[in-house]
Design brief:
214 residues; alpha/beta; Rossmann fold; 7-stranded mixed beta sheet; 7 strands; globular
Length: 214
Amino acid sequence: MTQTRSSDINSYAEQFSSPESPILAALNRETHLKVELPQMLSGHLQGALLSMFSRMIRPRRILEIGTYTGYSAICLAQGLCDDGLLHTIDINEELADMQQRYWQEAGLAHKIIAHLGKATEIIPGINERFDLLFIDADKQGYAGYYDLVIDRVRTGGFIFADNVLYDGEVLLPASEQSKNGKAIQAFNQKISADDRVQQVLLPIRDGLLVMQKL
């Protein structure tokens, strides 16, 4: 039997998932046409999953570490309760106009607060407890971001971490892993040993680790 490629599986899954909204499709296209490293975008399938998770949780406060072009912020903000807010942090000021334009078009700009700068410096100044945390920034910073925010995630709240398979590097011997690959492997091991959360690693796109605080 011919081995099925992961890209074929992903395409099939997208085919049988609800279609990408016109706004998200336009943002997806513009990101791929104009922005460096478009593979960083959550994309249709993972974006739909983030949106569905958020709509199930109905969070009041979300913290996103790593905004990029704003795609995942739209997906997560779709599930916010009526008085909900999403705080999102990024260091790239060049993408701010693009983010705001699409958030406005999605009708969600009033629910999204963008912070520009280093997450480790910004997070202590956000006086909130979070129902949902999404980590999708520099891979070597994952463990530090987790430690910085875990005590501010409410009991029963959720933490998502993206790229936890890191293009399959986590399956390689340590001697063959990049610095980012080693950092992600260490993060996965850290979470596995942390009795403050229960977790499941989903092999969707580049791996999504879903944790619930106990």
